[in-house]
Amino acid sequence: MDEEMLPGDSDLFVEPDDYYVPAKEGTEATHTLLSGGQLTVSLVGHNPLWVSFKGHLLWNAGRVVSTYLERRSESLVKDSNVLELGAGAGLPSLVCAISGAKIVVVTDYPDSELVENLRQNIARCKLLPAQETVYAEGYLWGAPCERLTSHIEDPEKGFDLLILADLLFNHSEHAKLLLTVQKTLKRSSESKALVFFTPYRPWLLEKDLAFFDLAREGGFTVQKVLEYLMDKVMFEEDRGDETQRRTVYGYELQWKDVP
């Protein structure tokens, strides 16, 4: 049995004749900034990639990395070009734009509803100093990046900061995800990619962490920068170690041996 399958899932792909998974309704979520301001974002109820998609929720790593970025906005965000991958509602990107980023490009799978939702979240955010500094694009990991880098002043150099929040569960796409990081992160000692995640399936934590082995092989240093325990688990019905399912881990990637 594939270890990513749960016990009793041997008939996972055999659906009864009357089987139907109703689409979840889109919802809204609110995030409180350190400044006391409130950010409300819309979340879609489906994702074309996942039958059991939980995109109608604001995942923990997105909240935690948003606070991490706001707290360190002077050193990480201000006047920087920022790219977020697999953004969902785009909360960290909005926080970066509010915190003084020069340009923010927020991306998710190129589905029209997902991308339009990102654009609506940008348009509705009254805290943004200027909406024309934030761009939403559909993007497949590993694909050419010219459309993403076209939004910044020097496309050849790339982005100062990358944000990857709760993406490591997608083990089969690690290589493509890393390739995008390699293509888009500026080759500078100051550039960073923040990778925050929770092991919602604790028995697969080693597979989550395998991304960092790839990153080291791909020319990056890897440093753990945060471990934050949430008040409660995000998905009550999930199995596995509760403490791990409540914990957000934060890592920082930087290029090796660059000026």
Q: Structural class, from secondary structure content?
A: alpha/beta
- Residue-averaged pLDDT, rounded? 89
Radius of gyration, in angstroms, nearest whole number: 18 Å
Strand content: 15-25%
Task: Report the sheet with the most strands, covering strand number, pairing sense and barrel closure.
Answer: 7 strands, mixed
What fraction, in percent, of the residue positions are helical? 25-40%
The SSE string, one letter per element, is EEHHEHEHEHEHEHEHE
How many helices does DSSP assign?
8
Shape: globular
- Give a count of the beta strands, DSSP E runs of length 2 or more: 9
* Strand order across the largest sheet: 5-4-3-6-7-9-8
Distance between the termini: 47 Å
Poorly predicted sequence stretches spanning 5 or more consecutive residues: 1-21
Keywords, separated by commas or semicolons:
globular; 8 helices; two-stranded antiparallel ribbon; alpha/beta; 259 residues; 9 strands
Give your account of this protein's structure.
The structure is a single chain. The protein is α/β, with parallel strands linked by helices and 259 residues long. It is built from eight helices and nine strands. A seven-stranded mixed sheet has the order 5-4-3-6-7-9-8, sandwiched between helices. Helix 3 links the parallel strand 3 and strand 4 (103-108). Helix 1 (60-71) runs parallel beside helix 3. The radius of gyration is 18 Å and the shape is globular. The protein starts with 26 loop residues before the first strand and ends with a strand.
